[in-house]
Structure formats: C-alpha cells, structure tokens
Design goal:
Shape of chain B: elongated
Structural class of chain B: alpha/beta
Keywords (chain A): Iron, Iron-sulfur, Metal-binding
Largest sheet of chain B: 9 strands, mixed
Order of helices and strands of chain B: EHEHEHEEHEEHEHEHEHEHH
Oligomer: heterodimer
Structural class of chain A: alpha/beta
CATH architecture of the largest domain in chain A: 3-Layer(aba) Sandwich
CATH architecture of the largest domain in chain B: 3-Layer(aba) Sandwich
Distance between the termini of chain B: 14 Å
Number of domains of chain A: 2
Protein name (chain A): (4Fe-4S)-binding protein
Shape of chain A: elongated
Number of strands of chain A: 11
CATH class of the largest domain in chain B: Alpha Beta
CATH class of the largest domain in chain A: Alpha Beta
Largest interface: A-B, 62 and 63 residues
Number of helices of chain B: 10
Organism (chain B): Solidesulfovibrio aerotolerans
GO molecular function (chain A): iron-sulfur cluster binding; metal ion binding
Strand order of the largest sheet of chain A: 3-6-7-2-8-1-9-10-11
Number of domains of chain B: 2
Number of strands of chain B: 11
Pfam family, one (chain A): Fer4_21
Chain lengths: ~300, ~300
C-alpha cells in the first residue's frame, strides 16, 4: 500500500499546509500526523469522536529520599546529567533528563532508586471531514518520540487494512534524527517540501541524504519559489543531479496564512493556490504508483 | 550571560533572530559575543554569519565493545539494557550500536570485564569566528538518530570556552536552540539564563508556542517573546502573552522585503534602518531579561 510521508527538514517551509491540502484531495486514505512533538494538522482538520490512549514508554528512575544514603554513586554513573544534589542532602533525578537506562537503579548500594513506567503523552484516533486521523501529542520535554511515531504508523496500517483504504498520508516530523527516521521507516514515497533560502537548500540536502540512506523515492516541492529565483534554480539542479523528482513549486502567497486563520485547507479556501496544489498532488500520486527506487 | 533563542514551531525565525542579535550585539552592548548553534539536526546559523572554521572535532558516543573470548554469556548486560542494544544471539554476544544510548550500564554490570568502551560517531563540533563574533556549532551525522548527546557535547565545549583565561572578557552567549519541545529542545536550553521564544501570530504558530511555554515554564527561567511576521495572522498570540504575563520584546513585521533578504542569506539588521534599530532594541531587551534571572 502506498505510504506517503511529507517532510521538510527545515520548519516553516509549508509541510503541514501542503499535507492538509493533499488530505482534501486524496480519496480513500487514512491520515497520520507524525509530528508528535508539535502537531499542527489537527488545527485545520478539526478532529472529533477522538479516542485517546496513554502513551506509556520506557521508565523513569526516582530516588526515595528516606532510603538514600547520599553516597552520590548514581550521579557519577549517570551519563545524562540527570542527577543533582537535593535540598535534603541527598540526590534528585531530573525527570526531563532521565533516559530510563536503569544503570543507577541497579548500582545503588542502598537500592534506594525506584523504576516506574513512564507516561510520555497520548496517541489518538479521530474522525475528520476528510477521513480518519491517527495523531498524538508527546508531553512537553518528554522522550521516546521515535517509538510514538512507530506506534502511530502501526495503528494507521491496521486501520487502513481494516477499512479497505488504499493510501496512508502522513505529515512527517521535522529535523533528520529519531522521529524522522521512524517516520520514513516503511514509507513508499517521501515528499520533501523546501524553500529557496540558504536554510531551505541546506536542510533539503540533509533530508534528501537521509532518504538516500534509506533508498526511499522522493518528490520535491519548492514553496515560496519566487522569493529567490536563483536559489530555486539551484534546487532544480540539485534534484536533477541527485535523482530527486521535482514535482513543482508554489509562489510566496498570503493565502497560505489566510486559509490557516480560517482553519481551511487550500483546496477549500480556493484562490490561485488551489489549482497549483491539485497539480502537485497529481504528480505525487503518479510517482507513488511507480516501481520502488532501484538499488 | 547565556540567552537561548527557541521556538515551538520550526521556521518561525529563530535563526534569523539569533544571527541578527549576534551581528549587532557588541555594537549595542559593548561586550563580546559567542554564537552557538545547538540545532544540530539542521544547523543553519553559519549560513548567515559565514564564520571561518578554525577547529573541527568529531563527537562520539561511548558504546560497548564485547570481547567474546572473555564473555561468559551470563546475560547481565542484556537484562539491564533498556534499549535492546546488547544481547546474545545463538552463542555470540551482539551489540546493536545504533540502538545504544551510551549509558555505560553494561560496562558497569559485566561481572568479568568483557565489555570495553568503543565509539559511535554522532557528528562534529565546529569552532571559529565571524569577524569579532565567536562561533560554535554542532552538526549531526546524517543517519544518526540521537541528537541530545551531541547537544550535550557542544554545551560542554561551550562551558570549556567560557572557563577560559579570566584576563580576557568573557563573551555573552546566544544559543540557537532546535525547534520543538521534546528532548533535544529541553537539552539545549538547560544552561541558559533566559529564553527568547520566537513565534508567529498564526494558528500553527500559536499552538506550538503554547506547547513551548508549557515545556519551558517549569525551568523557572525568565522568558520573552519575539513576534515574527507580525500582522500576518490574528490576535491569539498577543492574547495568550498578555494572560501568561510574557513580555513581547520585539515585533518583526510581515514584510516581503524581509523574506527576500533572508532568502539571499542576508541579515535582518541589513534590510533597512527600521530593522537595524529593531535589532539593537531587541539586544538590549534580551540583556535586561537575562539580568532579571541573575537578580532573581
């Protein structure tokens, strides 16, 4: 089944606005917001009938003050700089820094450190006017975003199979590390949204490199293309040289923000961008139907 | 003083603000400045400051190497490892290097000393200068999943630089943090005296801004807001800031000329006289915000 993931490397390039536009155009699909750290797709899709589940992943170490002798061995072992002096003379573990490795728990001579499962956020399935949406919210500052992304993708695949749908359309995570790598795992096509700016080009080369690493076919969209024609031409050359398909571009246009303020996708909002995103989506579906990228 | 420039949503102008502040800092405040790029997944600060890199070092994570001739296959390491990074397959001890968080627990619990420290390359740390602006940046290796250990390594290097000879004036530090609110962002702002949040007054911008405020508020550091693309969306951002008593330090107008200057790799302060003055005023406001922390 085609599994299309929209990513951008650089934030603010228009990844979520474009994903939302495609959700309005694609028939028979399941939607998935993999930007679990700062999800935004729900703002335009207005999810309802939401069923939530706690996302419990990994563990958290906690020092029992009454049992702690204050020896400080835990602090010496901790590689995550999570353990600092406590006001009571013992030691304290900062939840935001603890990675749940259990080393301090095992090595504490007083067995004063508890180790409990950690709730890191929630995952959810909702109805929207464009079909079902699998989404999540990681607790601020929490860990395990990669595992949460994998969980959402698994859920989306199950639902797609159960409901007889033929496409999974995902809003990917930003950056190039853990959550993005999880986003791309099992995908059939990555849509890379970029802009003709120094940061846009720089970040495109890095996410494109990541897709090469996973031998994943790519479709590139240049957003705000008219901001710098020379840089847009360089992106085109980069795509040709690197075997990335440039499927089209969009101009720098106030409608993207105006539609967002009205909580509408671009095809619903209308205007000149509606036709442009429709032709981008046609090009993407054609690519998604093609054979996988040769090794 | 150390100021972190952060944002919940990517692309709100965090790097624009960091680079522009760095460019006017010494002129506005009469003190040297060190610009640090902690957005190690997508470091962009160098694209606007054009530093000359004088030192480039590889940063690694300590991972286990098992000597199979010493290993007794007792499984203590496998039992401990919470990340599935070390196990015994058939009769051979196996390390899955990419899964390892580098906690060192397996080395500590191995009863026969069969495990020694090895290394996985995380990326590199670049150091140099752009004119009088000191520059330090981390760059994650493409394919590497874990950015927090590299962020910590860059932060440690920053602290080494700040602990230098007392004879020279210590620079103020501007940290360009990664976007978002999960572990990398939390790791990046940990050492800052104050946090400057860059936000857009749009529905996506406000949603991610509130997440960032929720994530950073428990740190107890003073926070201020720079509104970028002011006038582009609606009033929600301003309403929230008023209610949360978050000061607005500056407003960068929604102006195509600013977007075009950025697209050429230019700095905000270079757009026109208004923008230059805005950057100076912002530098002074950030300095006041950081002092609030030290007096608190």
């Amino acid at each position: 089944m085609p599994e299309i993931v929209v990513i951008s490397g650089k934030g603010g390039a228009g990844k979520t606005s474009l994903t939302a536009a495609f959700t309005a155009l694609a028939p028979k699909k399941i939607l998935c917001d993999l930007d679990v750290d700062a999800p935004d797709l729900h703002i335009l899709l207005d999810p309802h009938n939401t069923v939530r589940n706690d996302f419990v992943s990994g563990h958290l170490a906690h020092i029992e003050p009454d049992l702690c002798s204050g020896c400080g061995q835990c602090r010496d072992w901790c590689r995550f700089e999570a353990i600092s002096p406590h006001a009571n003379g013992g030691w304290h573990i900062d939840e935001r820094r603890c990675e749940g490795c259990k080393t301090c728990v095992v090595l504490c001579p007083q067995q004063a450190i508890a180790f409990s499962p950690r709730t890191c956020g929630y995952s959810a399935v909702s109805d929207t006017r464009f079909g079902r949406l699998v989404h999540a919210q990681l607790d601020p500052g929490a860990e395990n975003s990669g595992r949460l992304v994998s969980l959402l993708k698994k859920k989306a695949r199950e639902l797609a199979k159960k409901d007889g749908l033929d496409l999974i359309l995902c809003d990917g995570a930003p950056g190039i590390a853990c959550p993005v790598i999880s986003s791309l795992s099992g995908a059939t096509l990555a849509v890379l949204v970029t802009e003709p700016t120094p940061s846009g080009i720089h970040d495109l080369t890095r996410v494109a490199g990541l897709c090469d690493h996973f031998r994943l076919p790519t479709a590139v969209i240049i957003n705000k293309a008219d901001l710098n024609a020379e840089a847009a031409a360089r992106i085109k050359t980069f795509c040709t040289d690197g075997g990335h398909t440039l499927v089209g571009s969009l101009p720098y246009h106030p409608d993207v923000t105006l539609a967002m303020v009205q909580k509408l996708t671009l095809p619903e909002y209308g205007g000149p961008l509606a036709a442009s995103v429709a032709s981008l989506w046609d090009a993407i579906t054609t690519l998604a139907g093609q054979a996988p990228r040769p090794l | 003083m150390i100021a972190a420039i952060a944002s919940g949503k990517g692309g709100t102008g965090k790097t624009t603000v960091s680079a522009s502040l760095a460019s006017v800092w010494t002129q506005a405040l009469g003190r040297p400045v060190l610009a640090v790029d902690l957005d190690v997944e997508e470091p962009n600060l160098h694209l606007f400051l054009h530093p000359v890199i004088a030192r480039n070092t590889v940063a690694s994570l300590e991972i286990p190497v098992v000597d199979a001739t010493v290993c007794t296959r007792c499984g203590a390491c496998r039992t401990l490892c919470q990340f599935g990074a070390i196990t015994i397959l058939g009769d051979a001890p196996v390390v899955f290097a990419e899964m390892c968080h580098g906690c060192g627990g397996c080395l500590a619990v191995c009863p026969v000393g069969a495990i020694t420290p090895g290394a996985r390359e995380l990326g590199c740390i670049e150091e140099g200068a752009a004119g009088s602006i000191g520059f330090l940046s981390g760059r994650l290796r493409v394919g590497e999943a874990m950015s927090p250990p590299l962020i910590r390594a860059v932060t440690r290097r920053m602290e080494e630089l700040l602990a230098g000879p007392a004879a020279t004036a210590l620079p103020d530090v501007l940290l360009d943090a990664p976007p978002g609110v999960s572990c990398p962002a939390a790791a990046a702002v940990a050492k800052a005296d104050c946090i400057v949040l860059v936000a857009e007054p749009t529905p996506f911008g406000v949603n991610d801004f509130i997440l960032a405020v929720t994530a950073f508020a428990p740190l107890g550091k003073p926070m201020g807001v720079v509104v970028n693309r002011a006038g582009a969306g609606n009033d929600e951002l301003y309403d929230f800031c008023r209610q949360a008593k978050l000061p607005i330090l500056a407003e960068i107008p929604n102006d195509r000329r600013i977007a075009e200057t950025y697209a050429r790799g230019g700095l905000l302060a270079e757009v026109n006289e208004d923008c230059r003055r805005l950057c100076h005023t912002l530098a002074q406001a950030v300095d006041r915000l950081a002092r609030e922390a030290r007096h608190a």
